[in-house]
Automatic annotation (TrEMBL):
Residues 418-509 form the Ig-like domain. It is a single-pass type I membrane protein. The lineage of its organism: Eukaryota, Metazoa, Chordata, Craniata, Vertebrata. PROSITE patterns: IG_LIKE, LRR. It comes from Vombatus ursinus (Common wombat). It comes from the Eukaryota. PANTHER family: ANTIGEN BSP, PUTATIVE-RELATED, LEUCINE-RICH REPEAT AND IMMUNOGLOBULIN-LIKE DOMAIN-CONTAINING NOGO RECEPTOR-INTERACTING PROTEIN 1. The keyword Transport does not apply. The gene is LOC114042812. Keywords: Cell membrane, Disulfide bond, Glycoprotein, Immunoglobulin domain, Leucine-rich repeat, Membrane, Repeat, Signal, Transmembrane, Transmembrane helix. This is Ig-like domain-containing protein. It is found in: Cell membrane. Coiled coil: none annotated. The chain crosses the membrane at residues 545-570.
Amino acid sequence: MLPTRHGSRSKEGMDIDIASRWASASWPPLFFLLLLAGRSGRGCPAACDCASQPQAVICASRLLEAVPGGIPPDTELLDLSRNRLWGLQRGMLSRLEPLLELDLSHNQLSTLEPGAFQGLRNLLTLRLRGNRLRIVAPGVFSGLPSLTLLDLSLNQIVLFLDGAFGELGSLQQLEVGDNHLVFVAPGAFVGLAKLSTLTLERCNLSTVPGPALARLSGLTGLRLRELDIGRLPPGALRGLGQLRELEIHQWPSLRALEPGSLTGLNLSHLAITHCNLSSVPFQALGHLSFLRVLDLSQNPISSIPARKLSFLVRLQELHLSGAHLASIAAHAFHGLAAFCLLDVANNALQTLEEAAFPSPSNLVTLRLAGNPLICDCRLLWLLRLRHRLDFGKSPPACASPLPVRGKNLRDFSDILPPGHFTCRAALIQRSGPRRVSAEEGQQAVFSCSGDGDPAPTISWQGPQGIWLGRTGRVRVLEDGTLEIRSVQLRDRGAYVCVLSNVAGNDSLSTWLEVIQTESPNGTLSDTNATTLGTPGPFFLDSRGLVVVLVVGFLPFLTSVTLCFGLIALWSKSKGRVKHHTTFDFVPPRASGERGAGGNRVTAKLF
Ligand SMILES: *[C@@H]1O[C@H](CO)[C@@H](O)[C@H](O)[C@H]1NC(C)=O
Ligand SMILES: *[C@@H]1O[C@H](CO)[C@@H](O)[C@H](O)[C@H]1NC(C)=O
Ligand SMILES: *[C@@H]1O[C@H](CO)[C@@H](O)[C@H](O)[C@H]1NC(C)=O
Ligand SMILES: *[C@@H]1O[C@H](CO)[C@@H](O)[C@H](O)[C@H]1NC(C)=O
Ligand SMILES: *[C@@H]1O[C@H](CO)[C@@H](O)[C@H](O)[C@H]1NC(C)=O
Ligand SMILES: *[C@@H]1O[C@H](CO)[C@@H](O)[C@H](O)[C@H]1NC(C)=O
């Protein structure tokens, strides 16, 4: 787009050389004379292009080593990018008051003197990307009251000191990515009252600079990308009450989000992508009732459990593509009245049940491509909605059963051939005997298996109708076998094996008889089960304790009453009398603490 003017370089090249030499000799007055001399009416620096846009001076990629002379004073856009500028002195550009945009990106600037941009009162955009800046001294950006965008990315800045941006009261966007930033002083961002978005990316920060960020009370968007930070401590982003969009992208060592890490925030968009989260951080999200979009894509999250998201009452979109999702529970999105977009493309889902959604008809977008879907009766609902739903770039395809492998959901006709999208109810094929006897203390094992399509789940119900779990003395093993270790008398009863899948269930009950082992009274074989209830020789049950206390308390009550009676009688017979009565009172103690004296009470009268 920019015209190259190699032909006209001979004379102006000298001009530039002189200018840069003078600049390097830091002799600003002469330099300015040159700047002024170079202009005549609406002139144009010889190396630049002033014709392609009105009020613009384009001097990009001209091997310039200093700001060229002759820039018209009414210039609004000055593009000096991709040159060899190495320094900017104070007041160098002050003549260009109408300037709105200054592009100094991709030069070799390593120092900016305080006041370098003095006088650019109307400047809105300042680009310093791709230079060699190491230090941003306080005062460098003074005299830029209108600046709204400052791009300092791709430099070598190591730290931001207090007050580094002190006078940029209008700044709305600050780009500081791709620096060597290791430290941001707590007061570095003071004065940036209007800053609305901040991107910190590819820096050497090892913690989130919370105290510095807390000064950005007007911040609405914060992006923290490609940082080697493993933890977002509780309260790290406190003070950002206006923040609505938070993006945490590519923190490879972030394994979990602690419960308080988002406290103080009221977000509408939250993205934690390309991190190492292994589960949805429900607890940390708990208070975000205004959240509308949640993006947890590219994390090793394997499941979405039932009803855990219901506190996100305004959630509309959940993005979880490229995760390790193997299951989305029924009722996973219940309570989410506004839910309309689910992106779970490129996961390990074999199915997605209609029951996951509070109302599947409210769903507008469902990205499900790239999952090994089993096209059976569980996906019929999807087939029904396939013309209405927005599937994104590609519609989901069946991975099995074999006859429909690779076929897009969209490609099925309305009349399905027999055997398509069907299920077969669970059916018990093999089980042990219907009646089992076991001796007390022995182990009992019940087996049960069968088939169905999809593969059924096996569960067991105990004698009291309780569903048995995977742990404990009585437990269901991984293969569906029921195991009772150390059988007890109370285990007697019926055990029901239930095979179920989406198409139906089948059940079978087995009776367990427990044979009491002959053992002399007092030395029971199953010691574990019975010792707890056996009274020890010095054990007092609660009733016994009450009796002891009452018996101990009665003499005390009697003696106290007697004493008061005596005193009353004495004082009546003697008229007025000074009471020098002292009770040495030993309060009753819980039994056992001081041997036999524990529940005895004495009262002495002197
Ligand atoms: C920042 O990290 C990069 C890459 O890890 C390294 O080369 C550079 O020296 C670091 N800078 C500082 C100031 O630590
Ligand atoms: C991600 O987490 C897993 C364990 O949860 C760990 O083994 C792995 O090293 C982590 N990856 C990174 C890059 O920290
Ligand atoms: C949270 O943000 C929403 C807008 O997203 C706003 O309506 C609501 O008042 C805010 N709540 C608080 C407590 O600031
Ligand atoms: C088994 O099926 C019956 C009716 O078909 C149903 O009432 C019952 O809840 C099912 N049980 C399980 C565990 O799925
Ligand atoms: C154990 O004692 C109870 C009475 O306390 C008695 O009825 C029972 O027969 C005894 N059993 C044995 C095996 O001695
Ligand atoms: C008693 O409990 C211990 C462990 O608490 C266990 O190893 C042992 O097998 C139990 N004995 C019986 C008879 O259940």
